[in-house]
Specification:
This protein has about 140 residues and is mainly alpha-helical. The chain has one domain. It is about 40% helix and about 0% strand. The longest helix is centred in the first third of the chain and has 20 residues.
Length: about 140
């Protein structure tokens, strides 16, 4: 999910940072973190996806759109994302400019996640003008 545009949504970004913090803490406390759920399924409940609903929804939606999981993949019953519409639009790369310019604080959060940040968010591609060829390539009609 390192290049998923849905991370630009503040709720998903904050949840990604929280997950990273909890994961780092769990790695320090448990040397066998990778196998902890095999030994005991109830270990590390703080890493459960139900604590990160927007991030979970963004990851699954991104995977579905990019064909990383099958179309029949079902979200868990505990899914309660509050930003479904915005996440869907971001993943489809339709509404990049809806949140406005990035603040310095958001850029710092991206840096902590090693997320590549462009200087400006791309504009929405809803209009037909964006899909047409540039003016110098258009055929002149007399």
């Amino acid at each position: 999910m390192s290049h998923c545009r849905a991370l630009e949504i503040p709720a998903a970004l904050d949840q990604a940072l929280l997950l990273q913090t909890k994961l780092d803490s769990a790695r320090k406390n448990d040397a066998h973190l990778a196998f902890s759920r095999v030994r005991n399924p109830m270990t590390h409940p703080e890493l459960n996806h139900s604590h990160f609903p927007d991030l979970y929804y963004a990851a699954i939606s991104y995977a579905k759109i990019n064909k990383l999981v099958g179309d029949n993949f079902q979200l868990s019953q505990t899914h309660t994302s509050r930003h479904v519409y915005l996440i869907d639009r971001y993943i489809k790369k339709v509404a990049a400019a809806e949140l406005g310019e990035m603040t310095h604080e958001i850029r710092e959060k991206f840096a902590r996640l090693w997320y590549p940040v462009s200087s400006r968010r791309q504009q929405s591609s809803d209009s037909e003008e964006d899909e047409r060829e540039p003016p110098w390539r258009r055929v002149r009609r007399y």
